[in-house]
From TrEMBL:
Major enzyme class: oxidoreductase
Record's protein name: 2-dehydropantoate 2-reductase
E.C. designation(s): 1.1.1.169
Species the sequence originates in: Oceanobacillus arenosus
The keyword Oxidoreductase belongs to this UniProt entry's keyword annotation: yes
Record lineage: Bacteria, Bacillati, Bacillota, Bacilli, Bacillales
Ketopantoate reductase C-terminal domain boundaries: 177-301
Ranges for domain Ketopantoate reductase N-terminal: 9-150
Gene3D superfamilies: N-(1-d-carboxylethyl)-l-norvaline Dehydrogenase, domain 2, NAD(P)-binding Rossmann-like Domain
Keywords: NADP, Oxidoreductase, Pantothenate biosynthesis
Length: 308
């Protein structure tokens, strides 16, 4: 792949709109947002408001024919991924590079398996505190997108994405070991997203009340333990590296999981505690903190359904 000229994006929520707005400023209509008619109608009615600027993206209805894009970006929630893969299928050709900005440790494998595409890079975003209210998105920090090849090579695809991000003004990092970085981010999400959802607490609580962050740490240490069983080997150093990340987030900001709870949406608990408990069981490692978080967050989802 030479230069990336066309990008298709699916998922115009907090993450998709935040990074999509940067790409739109660079690419104009060469950035296509793929969605069904109902969503497109909603986006066209008001435009997308990102940090008080209104954006009108170029939209394409999901089941219409399309030329493959140079780059496809997934920015939906984990439970929405299978449907999104199907709906953006026309935009994926044999040479299309794919980035998945979803949290968790499974989306890249799922995309590879479903599409047979050989240009899926491993990626995640870190240090971003994007919040969504309907079609209005606000972020204090855009953070950076960490990405790379699983085999750690600096491939043509990696370089093409680097050029795009440089031109769009999107901060990025190409870590030496992207799998390790994805797991470290997973560890942080397992801690902060889940405890924030249970405590219904914004980042300021974790920044200022050590006992609150201790709860998150207890869940994170279970990820450190299971990571050693799957050959990733997270360490105390990885845990420590996330303390400054937490302190850079906007104090009033909320994790994506707390936003889901407050908006009565299904959360990503299956992909956080659910995954930790699954791997723990496989290797005979107890994961009591995540077991409790899993149960409590499920009850919160049930309460939301009951109230609806
Ligand atoms: N928010 C944050 O600060 C961060 C989030 N993340 C991760 O990024 C991922 C996305 O999170 P976030 O942006 O917060 O989630 P949001 O819920 O804000 O956004 C997801 C968007 O995807 C849309 N969508 C779902 N299915 C489809 C589909 N089939 N076609 C088109 N659009 C679709 C949803 O539309 P609709 O509302 O109409 O259903 C929604 O707008 C998650 O994995 C999250 O964990 C990572 C880092 C930080
Ligand atoms: C790390 C954090 C909490 C913010 O970037 C996140 O990934 C999320 O809200 O899902």
């Amino acid at each position: 792949m030479g230069k990336i000229n066309t990008v298709s994006l699916i998922g115009l929520g907090a993450i998709g709109a935040a990074y999509g707005s940067k790409l739109h400023l660079l690419l104009g209509d060469s950035l296509t947002v793929v969605a069904n008619e109902e969503r497109i109608q909603r986006y066209e009615d008001t435009g997308l408001n990102v940090n008080s600027e209104t954006y009108h993206f170029h939209y394409q209805i999901s089941d219409t024919a399309a030329a493959p894009a140079d780059l496809v970006i997934f920015a939906v929630k984990n439970a929405e991924l299978d449907q999104a893969i199907e709906e953006i299928g026309h935009h994926i050709g044999p040479n299309t590079i794919i980035l998945s900005l979803l949290n968790g440790i499974s989306s890249e494998e799922i995309i590879k398996e479903a599409t047979g595409n050989e240009h899926v890079l491993y990626s995640m975003c870190v240090g971003i505190d994007a919040q969504r209210n309907g079609t209005s998105i606000h972020y204090g920090n855009l953070g950076r997108i960490c990405y790379g090849e699983q085999n750690q090579s600096v491939s043509e695809d990696v370089l093409a994405v680097k050029e795009l991000f440089n031109e769009a003004g999107i901060s990025y990092e190409i870590p030496d070991d992207i799998k390790h970085s994805v797991w470290a981010k997973f560890m942080f999400n397992v801690g902060i997203n889940q405890t924030s959802a249970v405590l219904q607490a914004p980042y300021s609580i974790f920044q200022n009340i050590p006992a609150a962050y201790d709860l998150a740490l207890a869940a994170m240490y279970e990820v450190v333990t299971i990571s050693k069983k799957v050959g990733v080997h997270l360490t105390e150093e990885d845990v420590k590296q996330y303390t400054p990340v937490l302190h850079l987030l906007s104090p009033k900001g909320k994790t994506s999981m707390l936003q889901d709870i407050e908006a009565n949406r299904k959360t990503e608990v299956e992909y956080f505690a659910g995954k930790v408990c699954e791997i723990g069981k496989e290797f005979g490692v107890p994961t009591p903190v995540n077991e409790q978080l899993y149960k409590i967050i499920h009850v919160k989802e049930e309460i939301a359904k009951y109230r609806r």
